[in-house]
Amino acid sequence: MEAKDGEQTASYHAYQDELMVFSGVGRKVADCVALFSLEKLEAIPVDTHVWQIACRELDSTLSDRKSITPSVYRMVEDLFRTRFAPQAGWAHSVLFAGDLSAFKPLVPGDEKKPKTKQKRAKRMSKKTSPKTTTKRKIGTSVA
Questions:
Q1: Which residues in the chain show pLDDT less than 50?
Q2: Which of 9, 110, 116, 132 has the most CB atoms lying inside 10 A of its own CB?
């Protein structure tokens, strides 16, 4: 789009409102359609997972909110747009995918070191070895 920032945002929200006319289409689904099908890179689908990413990476004060109200939804969108414009939608997708447990091993710097057989064997021997205890009669002293 060749419009100014304000007009671009207004245009995006118009698409969102038009999509939400359909039964079963809420704000998040409308944003998914806008981002992935209509190439609206300013669209940020927000769910609890994305909200947690925003709390952790963009603004920790968001964690004070107990649910994703329309105003919190807009705050999260605005945080992504401010930080990652003009590719905020793609940044959202990369952060979302990178945060999924299935992709954690592929994220650079987030690798878990494989446990060596020696460490595992040592741990297992501690679990299986009987504990040595000394029984004392009550009232007797140990020398």
A1: 1-4, 129, 132
A2: 9
